Amino acid sequence: MGRIRLSSMPRYKVWGFFMADIAKFKYIEMALKLAEKGRGMTSPNPMVGAVLVKNNRILATGYHRGPGTLHAEAIVIKKAGEKAKNSTLYVNLEPCCHYGRTGPCTDLIIESKIKKVVTSIKDPFEKVNGRGISKLRKAGIEVELGVNKKEAWLLNDSYFIYNENKRPFIILKLSQSIDGRIATADGESKYISSKESLNFVHRLRASYDAVAIGSRTAVSDNPSLTVRNIKGKNPYRIILSRNLVLPNNLILLKNNKDMKTIIVSNSRSIKRFTSKNNPRNIIFWNIKNNGKYHLDISDFLNKANSFNIHSILIEGGADLASSFLKDKLIDKLVVITAPKILGQGISSFKDFGIKKLSEALEFRHMSLEKYGDDWIFTGYPKWK
Amino acid sequence: MGRIRLSSMPRYKVWGFFMADIAKFKYIEMALKLAEKGRGMTSPNPMVGAVLVKNNRILATGYHRGPGTLHAEAIVIKKAGEKAKNSTLYVNLEPCCHYGRTGPCTDLIIESKIKKVVTSIKDPFEKVNGRGISKLRKAGIEVELGVNKKEAWLLNDSYFIYNENKRPFIILKLSQSIDGRIATADGESKYISSKESLNFVHRLRASYDAVAIGSRTAVSDNPSLTVRNIKGKNPYRIILSRNLVLPNNLILLKNNKDMKTIIVSNSRSIKRFTSKNNPRNIIFWNIKNNGKYHLDISDFLNKANSFNIHSILIEGGADLASSFLKDKLIDKLVVITAPKILGQGISSFKDFGIKKLSEALEFRHMSLEKYGDDWIFTGYPKWK
């Protein structure tokens, strides 16, 4: 088919043609915004929003609220009832076609006689991965794929990368001065960044399954790693430590009513620690050593995976971050920079083997946003 | 006088009132843009633009093109001729009232029977500094001061700071990775930043009287420090070096047809250097030592001042920058950050005595701009 010659169309058709094309972006953007409402609640499922439209009128909107609850598609179909017939479904992810905790959405779509499905991106989950779209097409439903694909990928970045790698998605966040220092030489780091950035950090925490820190950060910052300032679910709180020399008064050990503090170490250190201390409700993960000074990161990730933790936010310090960097295990980097110069102090990154400028770690899908006086860089490392 | 009650005014007057108020910003912004055309040409004079307006019609526009040429005010008055009578003059800096290379602009304004002068900011030059405005007011001319004051200050930042400190304005520029490295451990730094940022650097060079580097940067980067990629005047090129161990093939020594390369060192090193080398047309500045390892920065600044160099762009390296930082002599900082991580290498700043977070160097008039994938931070240090 060649180009559509607008000049040969009656006026109302030209208008309608444009409107339909603008409309699909409008409704998919609406679906993306609806999906976003489920942030922090849907794991291990992705965030999905849906809009059901007939004759340019919205019949129903909905979003997925988490495992075991209805999928977004099922919600809008249920809401619309009989009216769903001949309507168009806008949804930011390919509808599922498998029996999970709920039935396949494709079946519901076919049954309700929806005419067309507009969606952003294929579901990478191995039981779906294009099969949902095939099934709909075989049933005579028109499917348009790829509308706002990049935005849809970015929204569920951890879900896509998890399904690609079959290991937890790792996001590294750090707050630094312009000159790349995360703390003074004495380890003082509270707070380099502004209040606005702090709210951003809390939103970030609420987005992922777990937050992880090294023992040095646990001791020097004594953080609570909970979600404050904003509404959201607390993530699991993970301390990775080979030697496990932790004072008893750590907030992470004391404030653990929700039983979400996890200590990761080797069997010897855990034995010694539990014989001396009696921390309540702490979860211990016993993992292998890697050489003389480190824990085995891939053993840790396997443990996390089997615990259904699919995304981990690394909040520091430089040692922990560099272990992940050395193994090329950082999937996403968030760097908050405050407009300050320290001139000395702890560097935000440690040596991870780069000798030449041409070897420098670069990024894809980069963004830069201002938060108060700070700016926040986000990017996905291009590992070579 | 109380608030102006718009409701009691005839309609056309309300309209006129608002229009006049919007107009003054419009014409001052125009003057600022005209002034900008003189960038790099006006030193030691400031950049000044002027717009002459009568009955909301522009009679003439103009800008200052450099020492010895007409001031912006004189240009527009000359262009407008008799028509200047009863007009309003918009100019981004207080008109001068002293005899310099040209006569006082205040006299021209009074003679031409201009009715009103709208200006942004007082001229800090000690022979003017409010006297121009007083003289106009005494002659019965209405003067409005302070329109777009901040923009006017930023445009001529080096001029204002020079007049405040009575020493050359110092701007430090560096290009770094996200993690604050200006080069790899081996000193490789060409080019961390993008092509877009490089154009920015050349525009920066063309804006100031001189560019200065340390000997290590001269040797490792072998830069030409000329203005390329864009149109503009070459600044003076200064190498500061205590020991003056420079290879003969340095571009700065060889390409010196414009006789703008200046070598700054102590008498002993200069003697030794000139006895061995025979560089053509090089200017030598003989300055004092400061302790065992450094040159005396304030002696250097005095020399520059007497050479009519009123603004110096420090382009590296970290040693030279830290000498100026230690003495709190940096007036403006420009940090170009490329979205790369090196993990190790030469730090963008060296220790300059900051021990606590609360002592961190902070900035006023901060801005952040994107250039390609890079971002450029600009700020004026708040020295304590």
> Reading side by side through the largest sheet of chain A, how are the strands ordered?
11-10-9-8-14-6-15-18-17
Radius of gyration of chain A: 24 Å
- Helix and strand content put the structural class of chain A at alpha/beta
Chain-averaged pLDDT of chain A: 92
Strand content of chain A: 15-25%
User: Topology as H/E string of chain A?
Assistant: HEEHEHEHEHHEEHEHEHEHEEEHEHEEEE
Low-pLDDT residue spans of chain A: none
Number of helical runs of chain A? 12
- Largest binding interface between chains: A-B, 47 and 47 residues
Biggest beta sheet attributes of chain A: 9 strands, mixed
Q: What is the helix content of chain A?
A: 25-40%
Got a strand count of chain A? 18
Distance between the termini of chain A: 41 Å
What global shape of chain A is seen?
Answer: elongated
Q: Which oligomeric form is depicted? A: homodimer
Provide an overview of this structure:
The structure is a homodimer of 384-residue chains. In chain A, the strands form four sheets. Chain A has a nine-stranded mixed β-sheet with strand order 11-10-9-8-14-6-15-18-17, with helices on both faces. In chain A, strands 2-1-3-4-5 form a five-stranded mixed β-sheet, with helices on both faces. A two-stranded antiparallel ribbon of chain A has the order 7-16. Chain A starts with 10 loop residues before the first helix and ends with a strand. Chain A has twelve helices and 18 strands. Chain A is α/β, with parallel strands linked by helices and 384 residues long. The model of chain A has no long low-confidence stretch (mean pLDDT 92).
